[in-house]
């Protein structure tokens, strides 16, 4: 089914604030993620929840999409992160889960084709920026929910495989270093 993002999701901007020490919620920024949209850094910026910002607390399945700059990755919020608010560099996308699963949209947003599309939206300005109206008009092909689930499962298996490959590479490096160390420093010719 062909849809526009705005037909299947609510979009809002992240919250602009300065981080503060001792806040009771994570204040998520682009620096907390790698180029593939994986949370890669310990969250070190916080914000205190109050009447002004409590409506911006993230909910399970909200998608964060970077709307400014050259890295337009997406990431799905999960409660295990703890209470969190997205900074204003993000769009917060709240999909209608009857039509689109958050993890599926995340895969779509991080795909090379959609990443290229995002780059064209911000082209020509010193700091590329995606407009909300452009994001709402994003054309998507939305398969049935069961196909979305299978796509998510394939993505999870891929992520596990990549993590296993990373660990294998680390172990191979350790083995190489141990062997060369023994050859260099324990040689008694």
Helix amount, in percent?
25-40%
User: How can the largest sheet be summarized?
Assistant: 4 strands, antiparallel
Would you tell me the overall average pLDDT? 92
Low-confidence stretches: none
How many strand units? 9
Strand order of the largest sheet: 2-8-5-6
For the terminal residues, how far apart are their CA atoms? 72 Å
What is the CATH-assigned architecture of the largest domain? Alpha-Beta Complex
- What fraction strand? 15-25%
Counted up, domains total 2
* Shape descriptor: globular
Secondary-structure-based class equals alpha+beta
CATH class of the largest domain: Alpha Beta
Order of helices and strands: EHEEEEEEEHHHEH
CATH homologous superfamily of the largest domain? DNA methylase specificity domains
Number of helices: 5
Describe the SSE topology.
Blueprint: E1 2-4, H1 5-8, E2 9-13, E3 25-28, E4 46-47, E5 63-66, E6 74-76, E7 84-86, E8 90-95, H2 102-109, H3 112-121, H4 132-136, E9 139-141, H5 145-185
Parallel strand pairs: 3-7
Antiparallel strand pairs: 1-9, 2-8, 3-4, 5-6, 5-8
What does this structure look like?
- The chain has 2 domains: 2-141, Adenine-n6-DNA-methyltransferase TaqI, Chain A, domain 2 (Alpha-Beta Complex); 143-189.
- It has 5 helices and 9 strands; from the N terminus they run E-H-E-E-E-E-E-E-E-H-H-H-E-H.
- The chain has helices spanning 5-8, 102-109, 112-121, 132-136, 145-185, and strands spanning 2-4, 9-13, 25-28, 46-47, 63-66, 74-76, 84-86, 90-95, 139-141.
- The protein has a 4-stranded antiparallel beta sheet with strand order 2-8-5-6.
- Strand 5 (63-66) and strand 6 form a beta hairpin.
């Amino acid at each position: 089914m062909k849809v526009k993002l705005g037909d299947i999701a609510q979009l809002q901007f992240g919250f602009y604030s300065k981080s503060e020490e001792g806040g009771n919620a994570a204040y998520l920024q682009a620096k907390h993620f790698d180029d593939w949209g994986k949370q890669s850094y310990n969250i070190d910026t916080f914000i205190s929840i109050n009447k002004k910002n409590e409506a911006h607390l993230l909910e399970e399945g909200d998608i964060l999409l970077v709307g400014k700059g050259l890295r337009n990755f997406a990431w799905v919020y999960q409660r295990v992160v703890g209470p969190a608010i997205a900074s204003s560099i993000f769009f917060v996308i709240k999909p209608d889960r009857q039509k689109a699963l958050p993890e599926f949209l995340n895969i779509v947003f991080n795909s090379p084709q959609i990443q290229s599309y995002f780059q064209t939206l911000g082209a020509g300005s010193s700091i590329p920026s995606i407009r909300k109206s452009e994001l709402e008009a994003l054309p998507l092909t939305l398969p049935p929910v069961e196909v979305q689930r299978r796509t998510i499962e394939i993505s999870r298996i891929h992520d596990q495989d990549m993590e296993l490959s990373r660990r294998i590479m680390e172990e191979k490096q350790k083995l190489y270093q141990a062997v060369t160390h023994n050859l260099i420093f324990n040689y008694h010719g």
